[in-house]
């Protein structure tokens, strides 16, 4: 994105920060306060202060879309394609750690950097692709949650879709009480999923030898193995996760010194690695359960067309009612939590371009159409005397004009508050790479997508 200043032959991440100028005395008193507080804490407490973002982003790798591809791969190819999941998660860890480091080192998330660095045509194309990725990921998540509600409570799928949308918005409201509440909720759902699918594995008892061979010996010998491998790999591609991860790390108060940045990056890497390791085990469990159950020749017809919904009946027929209930709980946790994270990621992606005018134009068009057609229809079919109808029209139409003018004003007005000022260009300490610049004070970001984050 932006070039990093070189200090003694090494890159200086501080060059990308918004550095607040101050006197040396104030730096001594304030600049090291956060650093000293971190140093006084035990190492495990420092690490726990960074735990959370990795679990939020990990949910996208065990959403209902991933679960369905795991079920289909296990049903058709057995344990043969487990290595695809393993290699895919390794690459996911590398990319997610880079996204986290981007936020830590620059003080901006990916959407802000794309908006600042790319020309307008590229920004619009990138925004459209990212929004398409969010929509494509969110559809199976919502439908999967509706299937889970149908399995557990026999709620119709259409009603389950409405309940999922409502509950997603309700649970995202937890962020008003701090982002950690939402992270704790998602982390608990990851644990629920792990417990449920490991319980499924205890039921079916997959052969350990076949599982290890599929995990570490790459091969594509089945008739549909190549297509299933591509589907598994494609299900693990989550571009919107990069926008989310780079923003979530900014919710932590990081000591913005070289030592603090390195410690934060290392902690985020360990935390993300653990969260993605949990998702790897869950994906392996789903594929192994499907492969073991479908190894029975009498179930070949059912296994050839296994889906999220039919998998519950398949497990219920083989492993009785309890296993089907466990599967429904796990699917509910997967769909609900991944819907939350996908919606959350979309809020940051919206910052790639200035879309207030697009939203405002949509509101104006919808309101003008609804208000004009409804009011004209009322005037035509009104039972009031003509004089009364004309009097009402004289009052209502100017009010409609004022309303539309107000929306237009809100759409085109410019923000007067500057949320990020890059002062490094005028800071000789940072540009020269002196010790003062290296340990300079950096203000805490509080403007992320207008979302209240913990103070």
From TrEMBL:
**One term under GO cellular component:** plasma membrane
Pfam families the UniProt entry points to: Nramp
- Skewed-composition ranges (Polar residues): 1-11
Q: Which GO terms describe its biological process?
A: iron ion transmembrane transport
Which parts of the sequence are annotated with region: Disordered? Answer: 1-30
User: Which InterPro entries would you find in this protein's record?
Assistant: NRAMP_fam (IPR001046)
The primary site where this protein sits is: membrane
Q: Which UniProt keywords apply?
A: Ion transport, Membrane, Transmembrane, Transmembrane helix, Transport
Recorded GO molecular functions are: cadmium ion transmembrane transporter activity; manganese ion transmembrane transporter activity
TM region(s), chain numbering: 44-62, 82-100, 121-139, 151-172, 184-204, 229-248, 268-291, 352-370, 390-412
UniProt subcellular location? Membrane
| Membrane topology note | Multi-pass membrane protein
Similarity comment: Belongs to the NRAMP (TC 2.A.55) family.
PANTHER family, alphabetized: METAL TRANSPORTER NRAMP5 (PTHR11706:SF77), SOLUTE CARRIER PROTEIN FAMILY 11 MEMBER (PTHR11706)
Q: What is this protein called?
A: Uncharacterized protein
